[in-house]
Amino acid sequence: MDIVIDHFGRVDSLDEVLGPNYTRFLQLVNPDKHWIKVSGFYRLGKESENIRIAKEAYQLFKDRRLLHKLVWGSDWPHTQYESSISYDKSLKIFRSILEDEKEQRLILKENPCRLFNLECC
After folding, report:
1. How many domains does the chain have?
2. CATH number of the domain where residue 56 is located
3. pTM listed for this prediction
4. d(Cα 98, Cα 70) in Å, to the nearest integer?
């Protein structure tokens, strides 16, 4: 059974993403079973640091060669954040977190196709 871990592993601060507990979390990620959803950045820590937390977490995923296990989702309906986030804004910020178009394609298309056993073009 595949398990999708939501919101970058749901870290609450920049210190946490750079700390030993997040390192341990990453060590426990089993590439045969686990997927990580890189969405809901606005749920990570304080508003002033949530994009930086997402960028740091994303870099750690890259460093651990987990790009093939990342998927994106809009996180709609954005419960408790309806007035501050939208689908378009969420996608735009996702693209600013991952500027590389090849990585975006992997996470937006190729990885979900593999996760859901769909034939990709």
Report:
1. 1
2. 3.20.20.140
3. 0.92
4. 12
Which pair of tokens denotes residue 36? 């990580």
**Can you tell me the distance from the alpha carbon of 112 to that of 121, in angstroms, rounded to the nearest whole number?**
12
The mean pLDDT of 11-21, rounded to a whole number, is 92
Give me the pLDDT at residue 69, please. 98
Domain range for residue 47? 3-115
Phi and psi for 90 in degrees, rounded to 5? -60, -45
Which own/partner contact pairs does 85-92 have at CB distance under 8 Å and 24+ positions apart?
85/42, 90/39, 90/41, 90/42
